[in-house]
Amino acid sequence: MRILLVEDDARLAASVGQALEAAGFVHDWVEDGERAWFLGDTEHYAAVILDLGLPRLDGLSVLRRWRGAGQRFPVLILTARGEWSERVEGIDAGADDYLPKPFRMEELLARVRALVRRAAGQPSPVIECGGVRLDTCRMTVTRDGVPVHLSPQEYRLACYLMQHAGRVVSQGELTEQLYAQDFERDSNAIEVLVGRVRRKLGSEWIQTRRGFGYLVEPDAD
Amino acid sequence: MRILLVEDDARLAASVGQALEAAGFVHDWVEDGERAWFLGDTEHYAAVILDLGLPRLDGLSVLRRWRGAGQRFPVLILTARGEWSERVEGIDAGADDYLPKPFRMEELLARVRALVRRAAGQPSPVIECGGVRLDTCRMTVTRDGVPVHLSPQEYRLACYLMQHAGRVVSQGELTEQLYAQDFERDSNAIEVLVGRVRRKLGSEWIQTRRGFGYLVEPDAD
DNA sequence: CGAGGGTTGTCAGCAAACCGTCAGCCGGGT
DNA sequence: ACCCGGCTGACGGTTTGCTGACAACCCTCG
């Protein structure tokens, strides 16, 4: 689950980044609007955390450019003061959520989780597919009611596949979501990871669509 | 666009209702959690505005019940105090957004608009022609309900023909679609491919227009 | 500081699937 | 009958994905 963090205050960015990693997200951090615009336009993020006061290119302008270019990823806006007119402006510019500084790190994480979930069309924090239940708040996984221990990377893979259950997810997409941008392209790390998750959650749980990617079936509903 | 408003303060409900109507929404108003739960489960809403402090059945419980029952509509939570732990709890219970009282009516409307916009559905990813059903998300194909396995290239061919059902598609066009530009011109690869697909999906399914190309019939509708 | 356990990417070997090629066949239109 | 466009079965080189072993790395604990 890859997040773009746009924040020029290095200290704040560091603590947010740390919290994101601890919560199981991978993140890229940029400090100015120009670079944010470029990355948002070229990479594929599950969500963006966007500070409004930025050097070089203002946050709202970046957001409008993204939306103008058809980018759909959810955006959470951070700003120093909770001026309500600014909130409306931000939301109408295409933001999906708004958080005034100062904020509790827990709240930021909850909102990011909610955004990612919602963008994946999955409003509940507990996802269930084929006997596997994943609680995104507690970061726990059970299979047929039995707790299963997944390593962080395994958890991220299972989580992403479940959030996109019913859709084939390519290796490239997984690589983008699970690793930072400078990861070596032709590695079989994903295959190995899939193998490890299969061993824990059942070999049939992740299906292979040869030549296209992987798929987990959603529960009927 | 129908909105469910769950709010026990009659005065506030009236002014929110008025604002919603002015913004072009139709709304139903209920005052207690029991009735809210019932309506949310039986009617179909574009979004729900949910107050947390409710008589008879608490707002968070209502939300959890809805989500437990698989209801997907976006929910915006209202609550009297901006207690951060409550926000986290609400969002993790499956809410899509959160607004502390007191709030500006404009901000509420902006958020509701954003929620409705985001929840708007996508077109169906399933194509069907002559008993063959192709799911572009799962990349699966069934014939008369029976799953059929197609290789990547076969899948692409079937997909392209179905997307252009009712039209004759030439071999040249198929070559352009399925292969890189430098593909050898006088190869019978397409013919072989068509043959393989026919064996799996029925020999009549792809018709030959000698000298022109291939054709699959669209379903009448 | 070092041992030990857990995590995760790399690598090599393997099995299966994939897919273009080819040669020969078929069948309809002139 | 003849020809040309299309069909088909067989073949094998290549690609793809899976797996076990291994090593680097990062913890924690003694």
TrEMBL record, chains A, B:
One GO process term, biological-process aspect: regulation of DNA-templated transcription
Domain Response regulatory: start-end pairs: 2-116
Keywords carried by this UniProt record: DNA-binding, Phosphoprotein, Transcription, Transcription regulation, Two-component regulatory system
Taxonomic superkingdom: Bacteria
Domain (OmpR/PhoB-type): residue spans on this chain: 124-218
GO CC terms: cytosol; protein-DNA complex
SMART domains tied to this protein: REC, Trans_reg_C
CDD domains named among the record's database cross-references: REC_OmpR_EcPhoP-like, trans_reg_C
GO terms, molecular function: phosphorelay response regulator activity; transcription cis-regulatory region binding
DNA-binding region listed in the record: 124-218
Family matches, as InterPro entries: CheY-like_superfamily (IPR011006), OmpR/PhoB-type_DNA-bd (IPR001867), Sig_transdc_resp-reg_receiver (IPR001789), WalR-like (IPR039420), WH-like_DNA-bd_sf (IPR036388)
Post-translational modification 4-aspartylphosphate, affected residues: 51
Protein's name according to its UniProt entry: Winged helix family two component transcriptional regulator
Biological source species: Marichromatium gracile
